[in-house]
Amino acid sequence: MKRVLTTAILAPLILAVVFMAPAWLLFAVTAAVAVLCFREYCGIAAGYGVDRLGPTGYAAGLLLMLLHEHAGLLITVFALLALALSMRSGDLRRALPRPAALLLGVVYIFGCWRFALLLRPISPHWLVFALALNWIGDGCAYYAGRTLGRHKLAPAISPAKTWEGSLASVAGSVVFGVLYLGRVLPAVPMAYVVALSVAANLAGQLGDLAESALKRGAGLKDSGDLLPGHGGMLDRVDSTLFALPVVYLFTLLPL
Fold first, then answer.
1. Structure pTM?
2. What residue ranges do the domains of the chain occupy?
3. pLDDT for 227
4. CA–CA separation, 153 vs 201, rounded Å?
């Protein structure tokens, strides 16, 4: 019940921001969510013995979102700077893990959220699609897995996930994609919509498993406790982070 109530409260707020907020407010909200996600990522990294990622990571990540046209250059410079600064550590065994974790976190969190900022100018409907697709798929997987799940998908990473739930997630995402994009963007070919829905859903499921693997390696069940019924912010958007660049990539392809 907490899971449903949390979604019911957040959904109207998200839709209002996507469709009505000016660009600066969309950036502010997206950046705030990214900061919360990175904060939880820092908690996960601490489980691996890597700490003090916060200030540098926040600054680099927000800069990446703000100056996304120069993303490649920013990431390269940041990687070199992080590696150079690692030499200040008294324990040189941390010279690789800390900058590697820092770079991964910035790209994983802020790098993926920047695609939300790139999708809205193309059409707010693309951004809604990218955000909602895996949330709907996650819901289908959750309830199908509880009622029909028999075969474990990745027991070493996430014991509760099943193949039946995974298939239900794909099916739910395809139905949503066809019903939503077919109505709001009728010029988009239906075969394109189906292919995109499947690709973005599978990317999202991979993102969910990837975050689960990070948490399990750190000895954590949830990334946080910010959202009742969901855990942390990163637990809620782990699939979305992987889906956003896939949806953006599809918008660049010729119809």
1. 0.93
2. 2-252
3. 73
4. 15
